[in-house]
């Protein structure tokens, strides 16, 4: 935990004082071993960051004096459209997009996405939030990516993709493409990444007919989570 995240209204005693009693207090006492008088990094979810001074700490909780004076870190220039990955990979992917500061993650269906993937408890709102918060805590961020779920491929591409792009380029990751993602203009864009095995020909053709332009991430076959990380790394800055 590189930043302690607070929620507006939760645990606040007044405008500058907060008292926490949950796992965050345990982390301060047992992991960071923060003593009275020490300063820690804090932030309000959806708001500013800053520092807090430990005013009191005992078995009942930790009291902090808060000063918020920094904006959240810059957002990533890519929004991501991603074929829903296997459940065992999903939590890691949610943490990754939070760590990189992605604004929007669109999880979509695809011919190679198994129907059972959509039944995972990891797609429930509280589990998604839990994974995003873990990434935010690591990256010292206070703004969570917005996660959208689209269970029908064709309606998503035909009816929503152009609107989502809103005039931005839409780069479709596809091995063997002539253009490298690293060679595209450094502007805000949407990046589409398929499932293990890639999008099927119909999906590739439809996305390109609507708006997408194929790009490659290199010459090696990558797993979905590695491809996502590579794309985000190429688009950073």
TrEMBL record:
InterPro entries: Alpha/beta_knot_MTases, RsmE, RsmE_MTase_dom, tRNA_m1G_MTases_N. It comes from the Bacteria. This is Ribosomal RNA small subunit methyltransferase E. Specifically methylates the N3 position of the uracil ring of uridine 1498 (m3U1498) in 16S rRNA. Acts on the fully assembled 30S ribosomal subunit. It catalyses: uridine(1498) in 16S rRNA + S-adenosyl-L-methionine = N(3)-methyluridine(1498) in 16S rRNA + S-adenosyl-L-homocysteine + H(+). Its EC number is 2.1.1.193. Residues 77-234 form the Ribosomal RNA small subunit methyltransferase E methyltransferase domain. One of its GO terms (biological process) is rRNA base methylation. It comes from Parasynechococcus marenigrum (strain WH8102).
